[in-house]
TrEMBL record:
Record-given protein name: LLM class flavin-dependent oxidoreductase
Membrane spanning residue stretches: none
Limits of the Luciferase-like domain: 9-311
Domain of life: Bacteria
Organism: Streptomyces huasconensis
GO terms for MF: oxidoreductase activity
Pfam families: Bac_luciferase
Amino acid sequence: MKDEREDLRFGVTLATDRHPGQSAAEVLARTVEVARRAEELGLDDVWVTEHHFLDTAVNPSALTLAAYLLAKTETLHVGTAVTVLPLHSPVHTAEQAALLGQLSGGRFSLGVGRGFPGVEYDVLGPGLAAWRAGLAGPLDRLLGALRGEVSADPALSAVRLTPPVHTSSGPPVYVAAGSPASIELAADRGLPLMLFFDKGAEAKAEMVALYERRRLSGGHPKPAAGHAFAVFTQVCDVPENARRLMRDRARFILSLNNHPSRLLGDAVPAPPPVTAANIEHLADTLLSTHPVGSTETCVERLAHHIRTSGCTRVMCQVEAAADTGDVLRNLERLATEVFPAVRHRVGTARARITV
C-alpha cells in the first residue's frame, strides 16, 4: 500500500490581512517574510488570496503576488486561493499561469472560483450577470487555452499559448467549491477541489463523497492532485488568547462579504452583518472545529480533518496575530511540533470515503 504521507502536503494561506493601524506596505512585507520563512522551515506550499476594495485585505491580484513570491523563493510551491476567474480573461489567465509555470520550473498552482457577488463585479466590469452565469464557461475556456484549443471563431484553427505550459498537463488547477453544482463541475473535469473555512471535517467528507459519486458515474478521471482544504491554525497555550485571536478572525471573515453588489437585489441572501453577536458565534465555531489551541489540539484536529475528509493538501491560515513576530513563532511551532506529529498520526491510514 502506498504511504499516504507521500501525498500529504502542508502549506500556509496568506490572505494579506490588515490589522488596525497597519499600512499596506507593512502587510505585504509580512506576507513575503512569512512565505520565505515557510520555505526555510520545509513547508510544501504557500497559497495567496484575491480581494478587492477592502480595508481588511490588501491584495487585489493573487496572480501578481504569486509571481512575486515565486521569485523570492526557490523550492516552495505557490498557488492562488483563489483567482476570481469571472473577473479576468480566462485566456489571459491561462497565459499567465503557463508563464509562471515556466519561470518557476513547475512550482505554480492555479486555484479558481467565482467568489462572492460583491461590488467588484460592478466596478471591474463584468457585471452581476457574469457571477450568475457561474464558473463553467470561464473554466472551460481556461482549460481549453491550457490545452491549446482556444479560438475566436470555430471555423479558425486553435492558437497555442506562448510560452507553452511547463508540462503536458499544465499547472494544477483547483476549483473552489461550496455547493453541489461547483463540486460536480470540478468532478466532470477531473479537477481537485479547494474547500474553505466554513465547512467542518464531516461536511468536507460529504463534499468529497459527492465528488467521487459524480466522477465515477460519469467515468471521469481521477484528479492529478489531492483535494485541498483551508483551516485557521494557531498554536496557542492560553485559552483566553486563543479566543481573542479567533474573535479577530471572525470579525475579518464577516467583513469580507459585506460589500455586496448594488445590483444583487434578492438573488442571493445578504451576508450576516458584522455585529458583536455574530462575531462571538463565529468565534465559538472556529474554536470548536479548527486547529486552534494547544499543540495536541492542533495535531488532533488536523489529523481528523485529513482522515475524515480525504483531502491531502493542507492550507493553514496562520496570520491571526497582528505582530509579525507572533505570526512567525506560530509558523515555527506548526512546522516543528504539529506537522511532524500529524504525519506520524495519519500514518498509512487511508481516508474512508463513502461513495
